Amino acid sequence: MGLDDKISNKAEDLKGKGKEAAGNATGDDQLRAEGQSDQASSAVKDGVEKVKDAASNIKDKLTGH
């Protein structure tokens, strides 16, 4: 995973945590749900990037790189 992807995913996660906290503090269920959605999206993207990295590492080992 590239550094840009890591930063982007972390920023999305933090944004989601902020929205969720604000939603909890104000009783805004929609904002809380948006925050949870942002966090879930970040986690999925992070997981996809990790799978890509693992596949690339396996390919490199098989081809001797």
Model description:
- It is a single chain.
- With 65 residues, the chain is an all-alpha fold.
- It has one domain.
- Helices cover 91% and strands 0% of the residues.
- The protein has 2 helices and no strands.
- α1 runs antiparallel to α2 (29-63).
- The radius of gyration is 16 Å and the shape is rod-shaped.
- The two termini are 18 Å apart.
- 9% of the residues are buried.
- The mean pLDDT is 94.
What would the average pLDDT be, to the nearest integer? 94
Number of helices: 2
Report the biggest beta sheet as strand number plus sense, adding barrel if it closes: none
What structural category arises from helix and sheet content?
Answer: mainly alpha
Total DSSP E strands: 0
Q: Roughly how much helix do the residues carry, as a percent range?
A: over 70%
- Uncertain stretches: none
Alpha-carbon Rg, integer: 16 Å
What's the SSE pattern? Answer: HH
Termini distance?
18 Å
Shape: rod-shaped
Number of domains: 1
β content, as a range?
Answer: under 5%
List the helices and strands and how they pair.
Layout lengths: L2 H24 L2 H35 L2
Helix pairs in contact: 1-2
Descriptive keywords:
CsbD, 0% strand, rod-shaped, mainly alpha, YjbJ_sf, 65 residues
Summary of the model, kept short:
Belongs to the UPF0337 (CsbD) family. InterPro entries: CsbD (IPR008462), YjbJ_sf (IPR036629). The protein is an all-alpha fold.
